[in-house]
Amino acid sequence: MKEKRKLFQRFLDLVERVGNKLPDPFAIFIGLAVFMIIISWCFSLFNASVVHPGNGETLPIKSLISAEGLQFILTSMLDNFTGFAPLGLVLVMMLGVGLAEKVGMLDYAVRKTILKSPPYLLTYTVVFVGIMGNLASDAAIVLVPPLAALVFYKVGRHPLAGLAAGFAGAGAGFTANLFVAGTDALLAGISTEAARFVDETMTVTPVDNWFFNIVSVFALTFVGGLVTTRLIEPRLGKYTGDAIEEDTTEDLPQTKKAFIYSLIAGLIYVLIIVGTIFIPNSPLTNEEGGLIPSPFLDGIIPIILFFFLIIGITFGIVVGTIKSSKDVSHYMAESIKDMSGYIVLVFAIAQFTAYFNWSNLGTWLAVNGAELLESINFTGLPLIIGYIIFTSMLNFLLTSGSAKWAIEAPIFVPMFMQLGYHPAFTQVAYRVADSSTNIITPLFPYMVIVLAFMQRYDKKASIGTYISLMLPYSIAFLITWIILIIAFFYLGIPFGPGIHARF
């Protein structure tokens, strides 16, 4: 076992060396955009097309080297950039989180709360918080990793190990949760529509994967903690970088008072939100009075933003780092300034993504890949495992979980139903494959933000460093999930209330 671990460490070292020889990410995505232009033209020469499995529409592969393609490139460039969803989410989150960080509130909170937790639980707590953070949608992917890095740094452990653990939980563990989240409702709706191709009465509910998700939280927390302590930290060694986190609040006499006041302000805000949810005909709930889906979940990013603004401004005023409204805007501007590299890179990513979608190459690859897998004629659990591997690979091309499921569900849900598998079981297989490889696909929108956080502690960190850190988590999570599916399958454990693998 020890020799195997050494071999794997050498493999990760090789991944890092090769990856670090790659060009700058901006150049990579510009190159991919150019490649997409050329490949779309090549496909169009053969009049390639694909039938969308959802609506039956025939979609031709459209050439970007054409009058229509040139018009799209020129007229959509600004919209591609400004309409790139993760850009707004990241910047809005950083307005609030960055303010709370700049005034010293987060640093003090880490020192006085998280650092007092038992050291042996710290790693597992970071992974657990990351997994549970998907209640706030993608916000956890932006929030948890940098906070985890700061925690590890403060206790004398390598900050990149903390960042990796937090990102693994929030990114690769995205589909797991102890509670029913918005993702459950979104995917269940798509699954229901696909299942009704075969059975018009079939309904997949948001709780049909709930039991499996609950078990997944604890399994992934344990595995993520082991990967961090047994593999990532030994490989990183002792952190010898410069101390980049300035300790500016410890000696201020008003710091403790400011922290208490900020907690009170934050609690009042939370109570107002909770109270608003429970009032009759609440504007934050749906027509049935529920939260899945609801304006509350749709507006979770602004709600989190206001929370951090309130606690950050309160802390800053009391401690004295905020003396006027100019200071508020100054700290917010400083936090956005730190994201300048990310903004530049997003411009290139947004163009490549838009070209990929407009040309219909993404749909062509997904549909034809699915048909190829179907032609293999796997049966039983090997088919499900094959499907998981297929989807995990497809995640390198199509990173949007809902969009990919909208393409795959009309193919695989009916096909597996014909073999006697419940659509919620197929949905589970999709979710674990999609989630586990999020953190290692270069097209994952949040890769660049995590890379930017890494470079705060290691200026030489590059794509190779990033992939070599995250690959062990991705492999471990995927293997863990496959084992869980096999256990649920053969032991007859329900995936949700009354939901088993077979009808």
Description:
- With 503 residues, the chain is an all-alpha fold.
- It has one domain.
- The chain has 21 helices and 2 strands.
- A hairpin with a 6-residue loop joins β1 and β2.
- The mean pLDDT is 83.
SS field, number of helical segments? 21
Give the oligomer, counting copies of the same chain as homo and different chains as hetero: single chain
Listing every helix as H and every strand as E from the N terminus to the C terminus, the arrangement reads HHEEHHHHHHHHHHHHHHHHHHH
Please give the share of residues in helix. 55-70%
Tell me, what's the shape? globular
Strand content: under 5%
How much is the radius of gyration in Å? Answer: 24 Å
Number of strands: 2
Keywords: Membrane, Transmembrane, Transmembrane helix
Protein name: p-aminobenzoyl-glutamate transporter
Pfam family, one: ABG_transport
Transmembrane segments: 26-46, 81-100, 121-144, 210-232, 258-279, 299-319, 339-358, 378-398, 405-424, 436-454, 466-493
